[in-house]
Amino acid sequence: MTRRFALALFALLAVGLLAVPGARAQSDQQQIVDEAVGVVHSFHTPGNYTDNVRALVRRSRAILIVPNLVKAGFIFGAQGGQGVLLIHNRNGSWSYPAFYNVGAASFGLQAGVAVSKVVLIIMNDRALQLAITNAQLKLGAEAGLAVATLGAGAEGSVTSAGADIYALSNSKGLFGGIALQGGAIGPNQDWNAAYYGHPVSTEAIVYGRGRIRQPGANELRRALGRL
Question: What is the pLDDT, as a whole number, of residue 80?
Fold first, then answer.
């Protein structure tokens, strides 16, 4: 096996399986949105996430929720999944969701498959703009972004200052935690078009002030508003 193999595996998960044709049924996108609601509801489960984490969400500029990030590998590994990005408006409301691909490759002694619920809490305008304007934003030092990884109930880590993005995960399987440093996120315009019924940019969705609407996302927006 070579590092080229790892990159190919990453591409398969992050692009090949995720960048599906725009003809896919809306129910595929709605399922991601509905599962994201469940992730938000889990924030209220005792022992899952602390009050400080919910406070981070309330102070954030945006949130990217990936209900199912699949990680698999043997020596070389890759992880990928679909998520939704919503921005936090100045009046406290949340935008409609834009769909994103999330993926990363890794190297090391590992074996097995795991599925994680992952939340990226974006804390400032600079990180948000990078996430919106880059076709594939690499997380970490290459983009000049400080990413702090938090596990469930990671009270102490939440108080660390200066992070542009906080990454939370709730994992099941043989892999413990998540390593998104060096991973990448990028808009999935095909899924945006399928969900909203016509081609629409990420900017138009999240900055549209409600002009781009999809009633199926209202419960997700309300759930975030109740944090």
Answer: 81
